[in-house]
């Protein structure tokens, strides 16, 4: 892992194709000043600078020498991401040099989109190189953009891999490979007795599977603020004894999307040598069905001593995260973040594209929201609504893992997790981790959500 070809910009090439990006409002003016052969050809095929449009202009030898690509209007661009990538597959194969048209403050995102559009999940089926390569334009940090793209490739690969090849042991190996790449350490707790004693809810959720549950604990960096990332690593979720219907189980290979996202974020942090003491905790389990599966009505005791009444075994992600969060909080992190494909309620609230996040810190929320805009990684703040605390407090235990009624499902899950973060400065992401409909630079399948925005926000949030 990862299986995808590493994303990279092309080296300078004297035989490259010039790429002119034209806004729709300025297209006719540009054509008026262009050579008649270029302008007449563009007009003849109806090119007007709309998003996704392109025109190839050949040289005297018949080979493509320049390409016009539409950049649409500002109104159209506000509704889209990765505009340049929208025309990528319509372009002739070759190496491209960007000559004009993209505002300086938008170039980095558009170049990232070009690299992200190169992604193919070809572990089980041979893919084809798009053979459309871009020379990094002046004024962008090419190495930084390649790092961001590599992180997303890693996250996509991990989520796209079916559970037959991405169980807790496979997720362990993927984390180990990332740790080895960056000279990080990885400690693993997989012994049944140690899990039962120290991380009882992780063990309880994962014990029904013949693939042993475990807690992955990666550390990197020796100076700077302490940053702890906790990712939900449920490698497949049957729902347990509250068995999901088949239609709801089909995408459950992606239930480790939180783990995949924190590993992608960890790659960004380590590859960029961010001045933090990084810790990544991943409870890796399968929620399966067998004679020793945990039951509705059981009362579990978490690592921090709190008791949890189980009213639905399909609300298992918050249980494994609870133990990991309690463990992370014991180390006194300066910022504690969890990422999880946690609730369907979040999807109902904001759909698949937005990454909902929770925090009690208004400044952190503002910084993250601003970073999301520039990073083309949309997020949306949700409330830790204190009056709903009563909904997660049952009669016979400290907490209820699945309040009845179905109201405010994402909020009550976030409130549940906050109980285990102690006094930490805490932020939680309830992500989808999946692109259901392909879009430019966003193929159908596993997705990185919120992590790139958070990475851009971390320096300001942590005072680096």
From TrEMBL:
Keywords: Aminopeptidase, Hydrolase, Manganese, Protease. The keyword Protease applies. GO terms for molecular function: manganese ion binding; metalloaminopeptidase activity. One of its GO terms (biological process) is proteolysis. It comes from the Bacteria. GO terms for cellular component: cytoplasm. Residues 312-319 form the Cytosol aminopeptidase domain. PROSITE patterns: CYTOSOL_AP (PS00631). InterPro entries: Leucine_aapep/pepB, Macro_dom-like, Peptidase_M17_C, Peptidase_M17_N_1. The keyword Transport does not apply. Transmembrane segments: none annotated. Belongs to the peptidase M17 family. This is Putative cytosol aminopeptidase. It comes from Phaeobacter porticola. The lineage of its organism: Bacteria, Pseudomonadati, Pseudomonadota, Alphaproteobacteria, Rhodobacterales.
